[in-house]
Amino acid sequence: MAQAPLAVSLGDPAGVGPELICEAWVRREEERLPPFFVCGGAGLLRQAAASRQISVPVEPVASAVEARTAFARALPVLGEPDGMYRPGQPDAEGARLAYGSLQSAAALTLGGDAGGIVTGPISKALLAEVGFAFPGQTEFVADACGIEAGDAVMMLAGPSLKTVPLTVHVALAEVPRLLTTEVIVRRGRIVAQALRNDFGMAAPRLAVCALNPHAGESGRMGREEIDIIAPAIVALRTEGIDATGPHPADTLFAPRKRATYDVAIAMYHDQALVPLKALDFDHGVNVTLGLPIVRTSPDHGTAFDIAGKGIADPGAMIAAIRMAGEIAAQRAGA
User: Fold this and answer.
1) Residue 275 and residue 204 share a domain
2) What is the predicted pLDDT for the residue at 207?
3) DSSP for residue 331
4) Which of 77, 93, 267, 277 has the fewest CB within 10 Å, making it most exposed?
């Protein structure tokens, strides 16, 4: 049986999402992308393609099944909501369209009509103004799946590196308080299981970062490594998970060290995202682990400043669509 097509949400229509979705469709054959459709925004997508000076026939469809058939000849769009294309000029109208597109994509994926969801980049502040009550799209999708936010784990994946931040959008001063042995163990389990189930790694290797410089230097620069992180690593290893550390973060991302693990578990946002973006900025994918559905997103923001100028790199959007298709196929045993 053919795999269901992926549902792609528009993201903020004033950002780079719409034009990069169009560019991904244009490159679908050379990039060997799985079939996908967009939730809403048919007219907007036509304008976005024109701004990029690429030829993209946009075809409204009535179902995901029809979208799969149409994909070879046109970019399928499911749903009537649409809006004006005003790149670089975000507003409440565009935020409502982005929110509706996200809701539709999630519902179609949860209902089995779509094989996974790829979320376009949003403006969290603007979405909050139109009733979006979540810190980000990861938490929204987790809630839609009935999963606790803490069990939806963000992994950033690129050709050179995979990283997981244990704390995400919080002040750096809050990180030590939020880190516990239980949190590290719980999320380490989710990461290991996802690498097995979604990425086909029979025995994934987890490298756990230290929080403090030089891994705390035996307590002289902090005791989190001794009191919190090391016990979590022992617990994971007791469960048969290949976890090592705590590793000083300033050496863990060197080329020779990267060859020794499959994913780096970082203690906070920038510890995970700085190396990933330094190495794989144009091909980084945000994939949510621990969900019953497949969800990926390009690992970049709305880029309002360059939207509509034809210079945004489509690599991360293409990588997000490809990875969603690969995970869906892995889960299906294809």
Assistant:
1) yes
2) 98
3) H
4) 93
CA nearest neighbour of 232 among 221, 245, 223, 249: 245
Which run of H or E residues covers position 187?
A: helix 181-199
Check whether residue 141 and residue 170 sit in a common domain. Answer: no
Does residue 5 sit in helix, strand or coil? Answer: coil
Q: How far apart are CA 76 and CA 85, in angstroms?
A: 18
Domain match, 136 and 25 both: yes
Token duo for residue 110: 């949860």
Q: How many structural domains compose the chain? A: 2
Strand order in 263-266's β-sheet? 58-61, 75-78, 36-39, 6-9, 117-119, 295-298, 285-289, 153-157, 162-165, 263-266, 205-209, 242-247
- Tokens in use for 126? 């603007």
3-state class (DSSP) for residue 154: strand
For residues 277 and 256, state if they share a domain.
yes
Residue 326 sits in which domain range? 1-150+291-334
Q: Which three-class secondary structure state does DSSP give residue 220?
A: coil
Can you give the pLDDT at residue 149?
87
| Residue in the structure block whose two tokens are 């097995």 | 196
The whole-angstrom separation of Cα 209 and Cα 147 is 26
Q: How confident is the model at residue 334 (pLDDT cuts 50, 70, 90)?
A: low
Computed over its alpha carbons, how large is the radius of gyration of the chain?
20
CATH number for position 1: 3.40.718.10
